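@channel sequence for tomorrow's demo:
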Amino acid sequence: MIAGHFGLAAGAKSSAPRAPLWALMLATIWLDVLFVPLFLSGAETIEPVPGTSGGYGNSIIHANYTHSLVGAALLAVLFGAVAAPTWGRRVGAVLGAVVFSHWVLDLVVHRGDLPILPGDAGNLPRLGFGLWQIPAAAIAVELVLVLGGAYLYWQAAEPFTTPSDRGDRARLLAALVALAGIATLAVDVFIG
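structure tokens (generated this afternoon):
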């Protein structure tokens, strides 16, 4: 879902034109950025579902802090609060919403491995609709997010470009879409 996260972040640019694209892209993967050191320390883990080779849809991700419902909400508020003094409250709110959108998109694709409380406190039921178990559907949703986000980004940038900028912008957009696809493959190889 990495490409889908980036697509949503690009689309969010249309609702917050003052938000730097890099900040939107960082916001959309912020939970995963924080997951990496916790994974490397063993505090958060990934394990293959028995009988599979791992990879997207075939792993249980124990991201009990970064990807818990309450943890993601707190990290989103913190990200937005840090951004607001620099870019304003509206941009801070949009960036915080983009951080939390990561959890919402993960809810759609993950197996039931997303805890409600940080550290899986209370051992409450874990959440996840498991769309990754239907690869064609997961790819379709991700493609819609990437193409929809690219379109919204393109529309938001149109008033600010000159005719000579449009070719550069098209190449940049193509590079971002390609990078998102490469990132998705790299994460799948890393996890799988």
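heads up for whoever presents: Strands lie at 45-48, 59-62.
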